[in-house]
């Protein structure tokens, strides 16, 4: 595959679902407005004034799809921001501290790493905490331990330790050494991890919504639409295949973009 063709493929796969997510609500109207075709029959195939048909409740699928990408992008971005912010800081803290502090930080994170993520999502659903911010907090919390371990390992590399010792002998403070110098040293591993973790978080959040453990069933989120219409897939396949294709395109496009960017910087072969 030529570089030009690959660039076009990346742009289409990643750009189209993002465009739908960002511009969709503007085209479809306010989120709390009544959906067009609300009185239509359920699970109608495309046609008859409904380009993508209707869902199991008789709502216009096109309007739902146009509104559903905001929650997908918002929750994924929020969880990644939370995970990387806390994970990088804790990883640098562990790498730059004495052994007792390092052990305390890492063993605490090991406990969190061993905690079943599904159990956390089930607990939130059972206590009726289905708001988007609870979902973001749960997904972000689950990403902190692996990110912190990655950052700590990169910061403890022999080359990094030698440079840190030299900077300490020059009288530089902890904040300068770890938050400025080492942060640049661990940027490459973090960038390599970002593409895979984007897919992991997207998969986790979509799975939670698909299993009914995430957003309320009334949400137009793409994963929720798949779950709500899965029983009618043979009568109205567009209600499942269209949001599923958008999720898949977003995931694959993100991975291709990150891989291409890293390859150009010679961070990967």
Could you explain how this protein is built, in words?
- It is a multi-pass membrane protein.
- Its main location: membrane.
- The chain crosses the membrane at residues 64-96, 108-126, 132-151, 200-218, 238-258.
- Pfam families: BPD_transp_1.
- Residues 69-258 form the ABC transmembrane type-1 domain.
- The structure is a single chain.
- By secondary structure, the protein is an all-alpha fold.
- It has one domain (50-264): MetI-like fold.
- 72% of the residues lie in helices and 0% in strands.
- The protein has 10 helices and no strands.
- The protein has helices spanning 3-28, 61-95, 99-114, 117-126, 132-155, 158-169, 174-185, 187-210, 222-229, 238-264.
- The protein is elongated, with a radius of gyration of 22 Å.
CATH class designation: Mainly Alpha
Described by strand count, sense and barrel closure, the largest sheet is: none
CATH homology superfamily name:
MetI-like
Class computed from helices, strands and strand pairing: mainly alpha
Number of domains: 1
Q: Catalogue the unreliable spans.
A: 30-38
Number of helical segments with 4 or more residues: 10
Query: Which series of helices and strands comes N to C?
Result: HHHHHHHHHH
**Shape designation:** elongated
In CATH, the topology is named MetI-like fold
Beta-strand content: under 5%
**Separation of termini?**
16 Å
On the 0-100 scale, what is the average pLDDT?
82
**What percentage of residues falls in helices of 4 or more residues?**
over 70%
Radius of gyration: 22 Å
- Overall CATH architecture: Orthogonal Bundle
Total strands: the figure is 0
């Amino acid at each position: 595959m030529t570089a030009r063709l690959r660039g076009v493929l990346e742009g289409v796969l990643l750009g189209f679902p993002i465009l739908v997510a960002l511009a969709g609500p503007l085209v479809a109207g306010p989120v709390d407005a009544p959906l067009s075709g609300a009185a239509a029959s359920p699970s109608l195939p495309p046609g008859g004034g409904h380009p993508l048909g209707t869902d199991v409740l008789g709502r216009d699928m096109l309007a739902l799809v146009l509104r559903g990408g905001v929650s997908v992008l918002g929750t994924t971005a929020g969880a990644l921001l939370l995970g990387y912010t806390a994970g990088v800081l804790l990883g640098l803290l562990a790498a730059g501290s004495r052994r007792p502090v390092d052990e305390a930080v890492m063993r605490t994170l090991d406990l969190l790493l061993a905690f079943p993520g599904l159990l956390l999502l089930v607990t939130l659903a059972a206590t009726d905490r289905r708001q988007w911010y609870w979902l973001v907090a749960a997904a972000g919390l689950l990403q902190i331990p692996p990110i912190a371990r990655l950052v700590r390992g990169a910061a403890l590399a022999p080359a990094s330790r030698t440079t840190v010792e030299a900077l300490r002998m020059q009288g530089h403070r902890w904040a300068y050494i770890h938050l400025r110098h080492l942060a640049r040293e661990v940027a490459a591993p973090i960038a390599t991890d970002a593409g895979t973790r984007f897919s992991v978080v997207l998969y986790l959040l979509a799975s939670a919504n698909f299993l009914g453990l995430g957003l309320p069933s009334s949400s137009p989120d793409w994963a929720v639409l798949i779950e709500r219409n899965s029983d009618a897939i043979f009568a109205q396949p567009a209600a499942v295949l269209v949001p599923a294709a958008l999720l898949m395109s977003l995931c694959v496009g993100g991975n291709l973009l990150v891989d291409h960017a890293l390859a150009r910087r010679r961070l990967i072969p």
